[in-house]
Amino acid sequence: MPEGHTIHALAARLTRAFGDRRVSATSPQGRFAADAARLDGRVLEDATAAGKHLFVEIGDRILHVHLGLIGTFPVIPFAHQPPAPAGTVRLRLVGAQHYADLRGPMVCALVDRDTRRSVRAALGPDPLDPAAAPEVALARIRRTRRGIGALLLDQAVLAGIGNVYRCEVLYRHRIDPLTPGRELAVDLWWEIWSDLVRLLPLGVAFGQILTLDDQVDEAERIVADGSVRPITAALTGERLGEFFERRFATYHRAGETCDRCGSTVVGQKVAGRMLYWCPGCQTRR
In what order do the strands lie in the sheet with 98-102? Predict the structure, then answer.
């Protein structure tokens, strides 16, 4: 499932490609045909993200998309005309120089502003939202015995965080993922939040999750000197970014040796997803 940085990157990509311009909207698959007709020929005003939810304002309509486990919505440039739709395309948007094909979403619907507010209100704070209130997440964490490893995947606690970020951020701060929320030290929560605020923008910029110190430090240098702009501009969302080698500390590394302490990384299903951690050095509570 795409994590929140992917949806924020998608919102920015849609705005760059189509913002303030009229779009053609069709449903090649046919399942969204009536609503696509309501969008067709209208101006795409803006696209925004809240956690894993995408909202696209087209004319006086709001398109709500949640990609779920298998959904994709790449934004692809074309020279003369877009290629014929391939596969089951729920919605196709076409502008002067780009097209975007939505496939396999969990949610694709036109909603009103009250519904959008309701969806957003049900979410926890989003680390990519400058106006987020992380103390709201802390309050929810501190009143439950559920483990912090499960809580980080709960979108009502923290919006946008998926399995990779939860595994890696807990490792980065040596936190035992099975620590009950009410027993988690407050300073550890602020370490988690601050690190997510640092890491997720790099995911937006590079189109890939970066959590290892050497990659994070290099990525921050590239962002600071401005050379990230062509890297970001070249991303279409068709695939993960490839600027950095895909490496993680614990994610998908069960049975391997921890690079920090030499213990064996373990895996256990927590909140429906495989959680990976090192029991040797993730002991902070």
Answer: 24-26, 91-94, 98-102, 75-77
